[in-house]
Amino acid sequence: MENLDKTDLLILKYLQEDCNINTKDLASKLFLTVTPVYERIKRLERDGYITKYVALLNKQKMNRGMTVFCNVRLKEHAKNVGSNFVKDIVAFPEIIECYNIAGDYDFMLKILVQDMASYQDFVMNKLSTIENIGNTNSIFVMGEIKYSTALEF
Hints:
Layout: H1 6-17, H2 23-30, H3 34-46, E1 66-74, H4 79-89, E2 95-100, E3 107-113, H5 116-125, E4 133-140
Antiparallel strand pairs: 1-3, 1-4, 2-3
Helix pairs in contact: 2-3
């Protein structure tokens, strides 16, 4: 972040709020002309500060209204075992995030499904097919208190 000035940070803030904002409107908010704003955005992309632009979907409308965090402990910790687990996990569309964690468990999965029956089906017919899972612990989200994709600075 040391190479970013106040204008760069404002550009990132506005793009996080609405990545569809056009350069003209963004330049107006920044009291600049279009060309320097466009060049700054391209530099931010080139330097890796902006990695991609996405659309955030409504989970309920997409029949994925139930969020489950599932902690997974592996039986073994050999390198190839962990690699095989990761390869299997990334293939499941229900799993939208996977973290390698420290503590009692090895991985934490964020899973989106329609309902409890869908989660049971996922566990019984998909998750249970992965070799080397020793133990799991499921945490069911009752309500979403804060959800943001924006990094604040």
